[in-house]
Write a structure and sequence with these properties.
Blueprint: H1 3-12, E1 16-20, H2 39-42, H3 52-57, H4 59-70, H5 81-91, E2 95-100, H6 106-110, E3 117-119, E4 122-129, E5 135-137, H7 138-146, E6 161-165, H8 176-186, E7 189-193, H9 205-211, E8 215-219, E9 232-234, H10 238-245
Parallel strand pairs: 1-2, 1-7, 2-3, 7-8, 8-9
Antiparallel strand pairs: 4-5, 4-6
Helix pairs in contact: 5-10, 8-9
The structure holds adenosine-5-diphosphoribose.
Amino acid sequence: MTVDSVRGWVAAARRVVVLTGAGISTESGIPDFRGPDGVWTRDPEAEKLSDIRHYLGDPAVRRRAWQKRLTAPAWQARPNAGHAALVELERRGALHALITQNIDGLHQKAGSSPDKVIEVHGTMHEVVCRGCARRGPMLPVLERVRAGEEDPACAHCGGILKSATILFGEGLEPGVMERALRAAEAADLLLAVGSSLQVYPVAGAVPAAKRAGARLVIVNAEPTPFDDLANAVLRGSIGEILPRLVA
Ligand code: APR
């Protein structure tokens, strides 16, 4: 299948559901996890920083995690042509939902409507307290870290603060996965973009959409476990392919 024939499917679709992963943000300067230059590819140890048990049990892990949050490339990142193509798809009225595994907020920064975006792995732009579950903006807490607090505690209850992202070993926010599955099952076209489709339960949205009758198109630089299930696999750069799909 070529980009041109898939473009016809996108043009004909009325309820496109897009599932994005870290691959749509690499061209904005944010490394992915499992690609050739991925965070886990380069430093398998780094995954420990993203495991809730280590984060809660080891203050040294929290101190390192806060330092990494300070210097996260996402703070300087700007949306790229891939994000913009999805904004165009929504403007045209064809986007039913945008399920993203990304925590960088670039879809919203590009102009995708927040009520269309389902952030299944949370967001780095907020903090949540593991003690009293209060949520708040991330930036003021980063200011506390910059001012020297290496492991800032919740101002209300003294509990452990973490970013509002889902770490390994944590469940997703209640209802988020159900919303994502309902959207996937209502799709007439599921576009999986920039994800290795290895992390569950989110990857389950792909076969769910297919089972419910959607066409499946995968846009990714490397193979995924669902390539054989796809009606089309477009191998290449998202920033180059997505704009052509919605042209
Ligand atoms: N164009 C096309 N494909 C790309 C590009 C690009 N510019 N950049 C990266 N990719 C592809 C990579 O080849 C890789 O297959 O995007 C995919 C990204 O896969 P992962 O790094 O596994 O990211 P993702 O699928 O989003 O990971 C899911 O795992 O670590 C957890 O919670 C984290 O949300 C994340 C989840």
